[in-house]
Design goal:
The structure holds 2 protein chains of 2 kinds. Chain A is an alpha/beta fold. Chain A is 42% helix and 16% strand. Chain A contains 13 helices and 14 strands. Chain B is built from 12 helices and 2 strands. In chain B, a hairpin with a 2-residue loop joins strand 1 and strand 2. The chains are: A alpha/beta, B mainly alpha. The interface between A and B is large, with 38 and 40 residues.
Chain lengths: 421, 293
């Protein structure tokens, strides 16, 4: 009101800038500004324990990462409603404050800074992709806030000496292929691939996976016959496919996000080259979007690593899947929705264990303890990097299944890849 | 040798489709000085509609462009009359703001109605190839390129042989001159915008088969298409064709002989080099205001 009044007066030109008036204006402005500055904290101090716990989150709801961002939002919201239905967190209702960072690194920094310093949220939850989590986690760390992220497993996240960053999946990118390498190792010598091709997208989450796999498989005696890195905006894969087909590798292991995974398989089909084994990082975990993209019969035998499966018997998973189906026309949650849900579970477990929202104590507790989530048990080292193994998935009979580790497996054994149809 | 021929042929096939997608963009800029940032979003919109009809009825997606093209012509005409005509005469900067708004609106509507997930039309031939002398020609790419060449040919004939086309070109060259000899520039502008939009009817149908897409895919496409028409010369149809073929060849040749990682860089390096020596692009004409500025 005060500001508005001054502005209209100035606009009319009704005020001349005498010293007294300048002083009066500045004083009024100062009053208005300081009133804005103190209002929220006063409100907070006056409130009792019914005051909701506000969780601040910035997500890529539009732009390049809008797809995982939208799924993460669904995961977070299901968690919130389930917590509130069960009496809230520490007896207080939970509220989410979600802002859209438009998949932009600068915006995500502004968003988290604003959530922490202006909105004074009680807790934070992470955003999507390494690209966005990298700067966002630095904002949280600087402000002494616990930061549990549902994605962002690139090794570079964890060499910055942060103490309040936790990655809510089983392993960082460089350990993601371990479970597949173990599977190859378990095969009799004559069934192992002898040669391998490693195409990968230039992405902080796929490149370390493929590089690490190449190193580990070379140690097992699998000869590398082809490697290439292609940019995120690559759309035509015919040339890469024909270069690979020339080398006739037994195994193709691709660091594929999504379109590139579908694109390479289509091009291999056009050349009619089907490797004995095919591994892709994330593309095959996109359920029906993947099978529609390459044809459901062509999915048979494709390997991938994944953090979660809808059939897993982890505690709470069934309820999560059922709730998701109820809300979204019987849909199956994307892995990203489950990861977000698990990240929220981690924060919830820490708050309940230390019986407060003390960020230092929660972080300390997480460093020392294991948390049960819908992804399975998660634990972390001193950098916040998780210390378990991913799940090894494989498409069988048109459905994504889990073949290893045994505890999480949904089928008895892996099957051989069939040629393209 | 086979490798080189394979790369060249693929590059031309890819470039042909790019050329069709860029042709509408460059036409609209040439006639109206409108940089239609929503062009990519319109392509994705058509791709979604095509995909939907294909998945419900099984009608071939590329064939569906016969229906989509007149529909998009009408949509383009309405869009111009209803929205874009209001900024006629403003700077191209204004058109970027307005059409960016349209692009975001289309993306948002698609998000809500079609869902934020990847789609791709997979007719029976999408994974097959023709084989000629040891070279493989992916069928979808060949059909897409043929459709593109057909439409580009048609566009060329309309623009060079008909009175309507002459009126459009005259307005592009000199709007006030054209008005002096009796061409109604408002009508021509609406027509050119409608034709430019109609090309997305074919481009989007082809896109639905060749590339997986989701609502926000339009950012990738518009940046690629803008690169093409800047290289070729903003407003020049021939320039769009050549620019698109250069991009297609840059992709396949660098992927074959260097690494796909370099193809984007090489394409933009070519743009920079060309602009150093020809600031108006390969086929662009320098206008008096450019020289004075």
């Amino acid at each position: 009101m005060v500001k508005h009044h001054i502005r209209t007066n100035l606009a009319r030109g009704g005020w001349s800038a005498t010293p007294v008036r300048v002083l009066a204006t500045s004083a009024a402005l100062l009053l208005a500004v300081s009133a804005c500055g103190t209002a929220p904290s006063e409100k907070k101090a006056a409130a009792g324990s019914d005051e909701p716990i506000v969780v601040g989150i910035s997500l890529p709801l539009t732009g390049d990462f809008s797809q995982p961002g939208g799924e993460a939002q669904k995961g977070y919201e299901i968690w919130k409603d389930q917590v509130n239905a069960n009496g809230g967190l520490l007896g207080r209702p939970v509220e989410l404050k979600i802002t859209d960072d438009a998949s932009n690194q600068d915006t995500v920094v502004t968003d988290y800074t604003k959530l922490i310093t202006q909105d004074k949220v009680d807790l934070l939850l992470g955003t999507f992709s390494t690209l966005l989590n990298f700067p966002a986690s630095a904002v949280a760390e600087k402000n002494g806030m616990l930061y549990v992220e549902p994605a962002g497993g690139a090794p570079k996240m964890f060499d910055r000496g942060f103490t309040k960053l936790f990655f809510a999946q089983q392993a960082t990118a460089s350990h993601q292929p371990d479970v597949f390498v173990k599977y190859i190792e378990s095969l009799p010598e004559n069934e192992r691939p002898k040669t391998a091709a490693y195409p990968t997208q230039d992405d902080p989450f796929t490149t370390p996976v493929i590089e690490s796999m190449q190193k580990q498989l070379e140690a097992l005696g699998v000869k590398t016959v082809y490697t290439t890195t292609y940019p995120a905006d690559a759309t035509n894969f015919q040339t890469i496919a024909s270069a690979i087909a020339d080398k006739k590798p037994d195994l193709i292991a691709q660091g594929a996000v999504f379109e590139d995974g579908v694109g390479l398989i289509r091009s291999l089909q056009q050349l009619n080259y089907s490797p004995k084994m095919l591994f892709q990082t994330s593309a095959p975990s996109n359920a029906s979007q993947y099978s529609e993209g390459i044809g459901v019969k062509n999915t048979e035998g494709v390997f991938y690593t994944v953090s979660w499966n809808e059939k897993a018997t982890t505690p709470g998973n069934e309820e999560f899947v059922a709730e998701y189906a109820k809300r979204y026309d019987g849909g199956i949650p994307a892995e990203d929705a489950a990861d977000a849900y698990a990240a929220a579970q981690v924060v919830q477990a820490a708050a309940e264990a230390v019986k407060s929202l003390d960020q230092d104590k929660m972080a300390e507790w997480l460093h020392a303890n294991e948390v049960e989530t819908i992804l399975g048990p998660l634990a972390w080292d001193e950098t916040g990097a998780p210390t378990s193994d991913f799940l090894l998935g494989q498409w069988q009979n048109g459905t994504p299944e889990i073949v290893a580790p045994e505890a999480a497996a949904t089928v008895d054994s892996a099957v051989a890849k069939t040629p393209w149809e | 040798m086979t490798q080189l021929v394979q790369a060249l042929v693929l590059g031309l096939l890819i470039g042909g489709v790019y050329a069709l997608m860029a042709s509408g963009l460059t036409l609209i800029f040439g006639v109206m000085n409108i940089i239609n940032v929503a062009h990519g979003a319109l392509l994705i919109l058509v791709a979604f509609i095509t995909w939907k009809i294909w998945s419900l009825s099984g009608i071939d997606p590329i064939l569906l462009s016969v229906v989509m093209t007149p529909l998009m012509f009408g949509f383009g005409w309405l869009l111009y009359k209803g929205v874009l005509s209001r900024i006629s005469g403003s700077s191209p900067g204004m058109s970027v703001l307005l059409t960016f708004g349209i692009a975001i609106t289309i993306e948002g509507v698609l998000n809500v109605t079609a869902g934020n997930r990847f789609r791709s039309a997979t007719p029976s031939y999408f994974s097959q190839s023709f084989r000629v002398l040891g070279i493989s020609l992916p069928k979808a790419q060949v059909f897409g390129c043929l459709a593109a060449v057909l439409v580009l040919g048609l566009l060329f004939v309309v623009l060079s042989k008909t009175w309507t086309g002459r009126a459009i070109r005259a307005t592009a060259q000199n709007a006030s001159g054209a008005a002096l000899v009796g061409i109604q520039s408002a009508g021509v502008a609406a027509l050119a915008f409608a034709i430019g939009t109609a090309t997305t009817g074919v481009g989007g149908s082809i896109l639905s088969v060749l590339y997986p897409f989701f609502p926000a895919s339009h950012y990738d496409w518009i940046s690629r298409l803008l690169g093409i028409i800047v290289l070729g010369g903003m407003g020049s149809l021939a320039g769009a064709l050549v620019g698109a073929l250069i991009l297609g060849l840059a992709e396949t040749l660098t992927a074959t002989y260097v690494s796909l990682q370099w193809s984007t860089l090489i394409f933009y390096a070519v743009i920079m080099l060309v602009l150093l020596f020809r600031p108006q692009g390969l086929f662009g004409s320098r206008l008096r205001q450019d020289v004075m500025a």
